[in-house]
Amino acid sequence: MYTGYPPFKGQSEVLLFESICRKKPLIRKTFSSNFKNIILKLLQKNPIKRLGSFEIKQHPWFNEINFDSIYKQQIPSPFYENVLIKSLSNYRQEAVKRNEKPLLIADQDDYIEDFKDF
Questions:
Q1: How far apart are CA 8 and CA 47, in angstroms?
Q2: Which of 68-102 are b and which e, b meaning 16 or more Cβ less than 10 Å from the residue's Cβ?
Q3: Nearest in space to 38 (alpha carbons), one of 19, 8, 60
Q4: pTM of the entire structure?
Q5: Range of 31's domain?
Q6: Which of 9, 34, 98, 109 is the 20 to 30 A CA-CA neighbour of 21?
Q7: Total domain count for the chain?
Q8: Distance CA 91, CA 98 (A)
Q9: Mean pLDDT over each residue of the chain, to the nearest integer
Q10: Residues 39 and 27: beta-carbon distance below 8 Å
Q11: Is residue 56 pLDDT above 60, yes or no?
């Protein structure tokens, strides 16, 4: 998504899957070292060595991202206008016209005890 091109190529679905399983991802020389590092760790073939969700959020590539603010929807989407114009269905466009509020996330979870072992 960063470049608009996939990290693996194949002339058919079978060749693409083979490329994913056996080849290294296509990494451009112009990528920053942090970006190269996170892509290689995310596309690690060995799942034990692959980054988990906590490690992803702690990676230097995301240093400037405040995940808590994103979760609480306190940061406006940089893609909102583009998405609004190009991909919203008529139903959603009508909801926007009616100024419907976005999904609100509670500050506290009233059901945390019910799902502690989930």
A1: 18
A2: eeeeeeeeeeeeeeeeeeeeeeeeeeeeeeeeeee
A3: 60
A4: 0.57
A5: 13-70
A6: 34
A7: 1
A8: 11
A9: 82
A10: yes
A11: yes
